[in-house]
UniProtKB/TrEMBL annotation:
Source superkingdom: Bacteria
Gene Ontology CC terms: cytosol
Pfam families: GATase
Protein name in UniProt: GMP synthase
Residue span(s) of domain Glutamine amidotransferase: 41-175
Organism: Desulfurobacterium indicum
Amino acid sequence: MKALFVKNIGIEGPGTLAPLFERKGVAVETIDAFRGEMVDSVDDYEFITILGGPMGVYEAKKYSFLNDEFRLVEEALRKNKRIVGICLGAQIIAHVLGAKVYKGEMGKEIGWYELYPQNEFEFLYRHKMDVFEWHGDTFELPEGATKLASTPLYPNQAFRLNRAVGLQYHIEVTKDDIKRWIEAYRDEVVSEGLTPEQILGDDDKKWEMLKVYSSVFVEFLFKI
């Protein structure tokens, strides 16, 4: 079995998810879509994950590689592959499924937020979760999809349609990852009036629990 991770920017990678797949005997391949890398077909992959990035799906003219990802997602959906979208990746899946993706009217979610699981995720995770967010865009729920999680600011945080799953939040990141993001996106941090300390938080248990949430999510993927 093989898993494909598609990157939209160098600094946002598979994080904790790649080793979780590898421990289950799944070979992992990562491509840089933003550098023009793309696979000819999804046939060789059982799992496909579209990762995050600072661009929006409505900027495909500026970031032309997004069009390649739209086609990749279309093929994966048509062939009933397990496909996951994280942050921008979730917005890409929603877009391909015909849902509206747009700038959130409630402002950006950057840092730790309480997530409320619903439906399948309510049985999977049981209780509210502290998850890491870094996004300004949001999406409408695709037609026929089941909502899986919400936050008070943005109700559509996760969804599933058949074997496609979108997560607006980040479960793949570590504290060191976010330290690098803070540096890379420092202009955004300043413009939002945030400090690194506010973004990172002061509870290291949250980072450990995020690893647990990732592990549980990967187990979930094997069952859909």
